[in-house]
Amino acid sequence: MNLAIISSSVRTGRNSHRVALYFQNYLTENKLATVEIIDLHQYQFPLFDERLRLQPNPSPELLDYAARVTKADGIIIVTPEYNGGYPASLKNAVDVLYKEWYRKPIAISTVSDGIFGGTQVITGLQWSLWKIRAWTVPAMFPVPKVQEAFDANGVPADKAAVDKRAAAFVSELLWCVEAVKRMA
Fold this sequence. Notes:
By secondary structure, the chain is α/β, with parallel strands linked by helices. The protein has helices spanning 17-29, 40-43, 60-71, 88-95, 122-131, 146-149, 159-183; strands at 2-7, 34-39, 74-80, 105-111, 135-140. The longest helix has 25 residues, at 159-183.
């Protein structure tokens, strides 16, 4: 099974990437899937001006991004909450693709430096993903006070508690991935 983790913040000093690193380590250490991080900070896409399929000369970076999303059996999106919404970098990366998202199982981890763990962002992001026919799994992984919960390398302050939550979250994603494979 091949999973991708979209690290959606492109902000200087971003903390949500810590959670992306954690999931990469968790999935690898537990031998649950092959995994790669799709780091939107590395791509630095220009503002969305047209879907990939309608672009006459898409950039090699955009083609690479589309290929990574396509080959992933499932995706974990790690997103910070900015003023009750998700970052423009993620909206841009979602909207530029369409068929690549069709029935793609996606689990969402929301992150904030406050006490609510980014939970206000979930509705807007789910709505956008539903509109393009992605399959958002019925599990969440909110991370409040991310700067205290994870170090810069993605190591959780309370590994046992975080691993327990991650097990339930990842289990839902893996179940959905398996369901899609069986129905295809």
